[in-house]
Amino acid sequence: MTPYYSFCFPLQIIRNTLFELQTTFTSCFTREGHVKNTNLARMTDDPNTRKRARPSNRRGRAQEQGQNSSSEDAHSDQRPSLRVPCFGGEPSTSSSSPPPGQISSSPPHQTKAGGPQPTYLTKPAIPIPGMGNQGIRQHVETSTKTGVFHMSKAKLHEFPPELAKITNALRNIDLSENKIAIIPQNISAFVNLKHLNLSFNQIEVVPDQIGQLAKLETLSLANNRIKAVPSTIAQLQKLRDANLGSNALTSFPTVFSSLKFLTVLDLSRNRIPAVPDGVGDLQVVELILNQNQVRSISKDLAKCTNLKTLRLQENTLELSGIPTEILSDSQVSLLSVEGNLFDVKQLSDLDGYDNYMERYTTTKKKLT
Fold first, then answer.
1. For residue 135, what pLDDT is reported?
2. Which of 269, 268, 278, 314 is nearest to 295 (CA)?
3. What UniProt keywords are attached to this protein's entry (predicted)?
4. Mean pLDDT of 65-84
5. ∠180-186-192 over CA atoms, to 5°?
6. Does 126 have pLDDT greater than 50?
7. What is the pLDDT of residue 24?
8. Which of 36, 201, 202, 234 is 20 to 30 A off residue 121, Cα-Cα?
């Protein structure tokens, strides 16, 4: 009687042969089915369709061949990934031969007989490009047409030097929420710049050259590390809005007093201890000094003819630190002093409080 293990070798050959037949059959079936679909128009009895399927001239046939080729490529791209099942169960990591009387469970590509290795049809991953020099160049090209350069949250560590090529074209630069530490001295070359936003960066020093931006209207340097403001700011005669909140200023920048068109000055969240004398020439409509260390206010602030809103929330003011002139003689119609060293209701005990309430009520009626 023939032992059972004598059939192992013929079974191995049969299994490899079946695998080759299945792979060949699958490939031929897919390609032939595609060819039949491509040439379906040639098999129809409609003469018009047959005419379209077989162009009469040589140029039409060349176009047809190109279309068939592109269609075949597209079909091959859409073809699902083919994973041919292995005969004999799960792949085995052992390279040793099976004992007598037992059929190996290894797939054909792991057998010693050298069976065909399966190929899996998969598409390679497409890399997603990140922001780099190429991205900056694309923004620069767009900015030459629009006059606006906007690259916030781009993880930039420096002011883009590529902007030096389009200094005359830019009217708006927004580089907020980056990691820029230095404003270059050639910032003065942007002679047509109207809006500059460098907030949420790591800037410590504002260069004197910023005063040469004669057309600048809005300046945002909030959330940086600025400790002082250069005197050349006084040259920005068209400046309307200045935001220096959340910095490290230790004194009130009186340089803004000479700007005739300045409407809003935001100095909140700094370390300013007082509003000094000499601020009577400020032309601002709103002055924001919230979250500082203000302990005293000069009565010159009551001379600001355009000042309507004065915000002094969360400082170290005592009731005696508020000049009565601000209540009685100024144009302030909204005085916000919550979060200081006194109760807001105590304001009614100061001289001039009734005059302030008249202005407050009149302004409130206009808004409603």
1. 76
2. 314
3. Leucine-rich repeat, Repeat
4. 48
5. 100
6. no
7. 63
8. 36
pLDDT (0 to 100) of residue 178: 97
Pairing of strands 195-197, 241-243: unpaired
Amino acid at 247: N
135-147: pLDDT as tens digits? 788 889 999 999 9
DSSP 207-273: -GGGGG-TT--EEE--SS------GGGGG-TT--EEE--SS---S--GGGGG-TT--EEE--SS---
pTM of the shown model: 0.65
Residue 336 in 3-state DSSP? strand
Whole-number Å distance between alpha carbons of 44 and 180 = 69
What does the alpha-carbon distance between residue 142 and residue 119 come to, in Å, rounded to a whole number?
46
**Partners of 145 in beta bridges:** none
Backbone angles phi, psi at 148, to 5 degrees: -125, 125
Residue 63, pLDDT > 70, answer no
Any residues with CB less than 8 A from the CB of 170 and at least 6 apart, and which? 143, 147, 148, 149, 163, 190, 192, 193
All structural domains of the chain: 249-368 (3.80.10.10)
Higher pLDDT pick, 19 / 98: 19
Phi/psi for 328 (5° steps) reads -95, -40
- Spatial separation of the C-alpha atoms in residues 69 and 107, rounded to whole Å: 36
Cα 137 to Cα 94, 152, 191, distances in angstroms: 56, 15, 21
**H-run or E-run covering 14:** helix 8-38
